[in-house]
Write the structure tokens for this entry.
Amino acid sequence: MKKIKLGFAGTPNVAFAHFSHLLNNPNIEFSFILTQPDKKSGRGLEESKSLFYKYAEEIAVFQPASLSDQGTKDQLMNFDIDLLVVVAYGKLLPKWLLSFPKFGSLNVHFSLLPKWRGAAPIQRAIENGDKITGISFMKIIDELDAGPVYSNFVVDIENNDFFQVEQKLLSVSLDNINSIIHLITSGSIEPKEQINKEATYAEKIDPKKDALIDWSWSSKLIKNKYLAYKKWPILSFQINGEKVQIHELDVLSGKSGSPGEIHSFNKESLSVFCKDGSIEIKSVKFPGKKVISSIDFFNAKRDIISSGDILV
């Protein structure tokens, strides 16, 4: 059986998981990997190597700063591939890259398209209180997440946080991606156009706007944001001029008071009124500090935080 020749474009862990999974398929051969340049991180700004660097001796790995570079284009166009598989590459891909593979380019998108096109589909689905989302295997066109869909798979996400949803979606994608690639490259499947009028957009997360609590928000929205932003940027609130991350909370709907007013502060929690109830904050992280329990929070701040205080 002739092997399927793939190019792969992806950057974070979820992309590497797809690549590693496909690498175990004896009917697939990788011609190249396209991933984002190494980044400098940490206080010493040490260079963080790409997850894919260890395969550089076996497979051509490209990390261009720009895909408009003619040298990169010439190198990639020399490959004869059946399909380009894209999983969270991190930049829009140019037309020439999408169209030169024999069967075009396949994107793994973490929503049920046309819902939640864009940069943050998992977070926006959770934040919106969606009970289901899914995986869409989409043919990429020169318009953001608007290409026709080969197949999609529904996943139940009710009351799940970001980590749980991402893991569920990853599992479903890995279970199905090999068969989808086979169907595409054998000419056995045709993608169906999306209904564009039903499209919604998952805008990029703005930590200052999206993840800093406004106490006039509903308890449901605050809980959803807590679940959605559990990985990043983490839901926060301000107290005495400090931005404090919330690492555990509960919602109580039977109490009412002025939004932002502290209902109680004790070893169990910091309880703050919102639009339609109260938020019980049970674990926090102050800037530059480690995560602490409600007991440690109370012992550290009991002298400066009192019932009736107003948070902004």
User: Anything to note?
Assistant: Residues 183 and 189 are 6 Å apart (CA to CA). The mean pLDDT is 95.
